[in-house]
Amino acid sequence: MPKGELNMRQKQEQCPYCHGQGYFQLLLGGSENCPNCDGAGTQEAQKEAVSSHP
């Protein structure tokens, strides 16, 4: 696999909000887990809508 393809694949798997870090650095100090990926740093699969009606 070419190096460019590997980098592209990694970028696609990373969370687009925290860029794969899993957290945000707060301006006043400390950090907070990314609400989009719950701190995992990876892009979650599309969640299917679950109906509460049978």
Mean pLDDT rating = 75
Number of E strands: 2
In the predicted model, the low-confidence regions spanning at least 5 consecutive residues are 46-50
Distance between the termini: 46 Å
Provide the gyration radius in Å: 15 Å
Helical content class: 10-25%
Strand neighbour order, sheet with most strands: 1-2
Sheet-strand content, in percent, reads 5-15%
Broad structural category: alpha+beta
Let me know the largest β-sheet: 2 strands, antiparallel
Sequence of secondary-structure elements: HEE
Categorize the overall geometry. elongated
* Total number of helices: 1
Organism: Brevibacillus brevis (strain 47 / JCM 6285 / NBRC 100599)
Protein name: YuiA family protein
InterPro entries: DUF5351, HSP_DnaJ_Cys-rich_dom_sf
List the keywords:
single chain; 54 residues; alpha+beta; two-stranded antiparallel ribbon; 1 helix; 2 strands; 20% helix
Polypeptide structure, described:
The chain is of the alpha+beta class and 54 residues long. It is built from one helix and two strands. It has a two-stranded antiparallel ribbon. Strand 1 (23-25) and strand 2 form a beta hairpin.
